[in-house]
Amino acid sequence: MQGDIGVIGLAVMGQNLILNMNDHGYTVVAYNRTTSKVDDFLAGSAKDTNIIGAYSLQELINNLKAPRRVMLMVKAGEVVDAFIEQLVPLLDAGDIIIDGGNSNYPDTNRRVKTLESKGLYYIGTGVSGGEEGARFGPSIMPGGSVAAWPAVKAIFQSISAKTDSGEPCCDWVGKDGAGHFVKMVHNGIEYGDMQLICEAYHFMQTGLGMSADEMQAVFANWNTTELNSYLIEITADIMAYRDDKGEPVVEQILDTAGQKGTGKWTAINALDFGIPLTLISEAVFSRCLSALKVHRVQAETQFGSSTSTVHGDKAEWIDALQQALLASKIISYAQGFMLMREASDNNDWDLNYGNVALMWRGGCIIRSAFLGNIRDAYETDSELTFLGSDDYFKAILQRCLPAWRKVAAKAMESGIPMPCTTSALNFLHGFTTARLPANLLQAQRDYFGAHTYERLDRPRGEFFHTNWTGTGGNTTSTIYDA
């Protein structure tokens, strides 16, 4: 019996994807560099399945049907390149290498071109949902060599999560690194969502003095509203979890957050493309700030804690906080889709934003109720620039705005840091303001650097310079890039 697909890498994600494929009737060949892990897997969770163990790359390839499909579930970066280098001499024209890790999309661009020049195909696919999603149905975001999609479509769509109507949370994203780019943005939105929830928790705990039980009830209730989502659901579960002494485990955890790089990549790409991804960037910086634990402890001894109690009706504040969280969450997704549109235009990917929302509707970490509404918004207007301009989301933002401002103002007044909540609000204020003070900024740039400016009373594209001091002369610098 020959395998339908080979998987390299038997960490938890790799093992669970293999078991998922096996459940759906596919014969999988499993390989790991440390071959003892193959034995452990076959004797453990893969026992009594059709999974085939391989103890070398040659054995892996020999056990696969043509065209051979080999999926890498290994650490991004040099490890992926090393495996590709070892696999290429063993493969035939038309065979496919699939990278299921969180690779940086320029690496995927490069690998697609290199392998296609050798007659091979390459797919870079984002896989979201954690270990549970991998086992029972993740969100899968494939991109790369377009000709390879028919050879993996049935496998990927069968093992992926499904929407309530049975649609697979997997579809072709686009050529080259499009799949990994969309997964990167997914992870950036995930950073933003998590930080927003943490800020709501901080406001309730520090400002309102609420217990873990009280906050658990709030998050559980929020999960029955427009905020219904995987991250709200697990936050309610976390608040309810107790140690053997009956204490909330969450309160025993050191307040320093880790990160693996995809959020940072999202922020860097936003800067490169000139997209104001303010909320997600703040979420990345919040993790960086949390890591400065020793310095923060020292600073508190020097400055003292500036946090004060939030007074007033607790139920009213919780309602306001719910609205602020919902509105901020919409801005997080809106910014993410703005970045994807800019990248798609620059790379000629022709992304289908409704399909992206569908792929995130189930299985992935950022799955939430309103992703269906995002899909509807882009199906109604595929050229939608700002998600908040869609009638459904515009109505929510307008409805939530007073409460959102109230929470942001009170957080500032009470010394409760809510960088993502306030950043999202400032973005909306800026994006909906027809005239910003950048006219003064351009005057300053022209004053000290002769960088020129455009005028309100002249057509766009005409540039002017003022000799502000009378001694600066009329020579200009290069025209600014607006």
Largest sheet, described in full? 8 strands, mixed
The shape, in one word, is globular
Mean pLDDT: 94
- Give the C-alpha Rg: 25 Å
Please write out the topology.
Blueprint lengths: L4 E4 L3 H12 L4 E4 L4 H8 L8 E2 L3 H6 L6 E4 L5 H10 L8 E4 L5 H12 L4 E8 L1 H7 L2 E6 L4 H11 L14 E2 L2 H30 L4 H11 L7 H11 L21 H12 L4 H13 L2 H11 L10 H34 L5 H7 L11 H10 L10 H24 L4 H13 L6 H12 L33
Parallel strand pairs: 1-2, 1-4, 2-3, 4-5, 5-6, 7-8
Antiparallel strand pairs: 6-7
Helix pairs in contact: 1-6, 8-11, 8-12, 8-14, 9-10, 11-12, 12-18, 14-17, 14-18, 15-16
Short description:
This protein has helices at residues 12-23, 36-43, 57-62, 78-87, 105-116, 130-136, 149-159, 178-207, 212-222, 230-240, 262-273, 278-290, 293-303, 314-347, 353-359, 371-380, 391-414, 419-431, 438-449; strands at residues 5-8, 28-31, 52-53, 69-72, 96-99, 121-128, 139-144, 174-175. The protein is α/β, with parallel strands linked by helices.
Structure description:
Helices cover 53% and strands 7% of the residues. Helix 1 runs parallel beside helix 6 (130-136), helix 8 runs antiparallel to helix 14 (314-347) and helix 11 (262-273) crosses helix 12. Strands 3-2-1-4-5-6-7-8 form an eight-stranded mixed β-sheet, sandwiched between helices. The chain is globular, with a radius of gyration of 25 Å. With 482 residues, the protein is an alpha/beta fold. Helix 7 (149-159) links the parallel strand 7 (139-144) and strand 8.
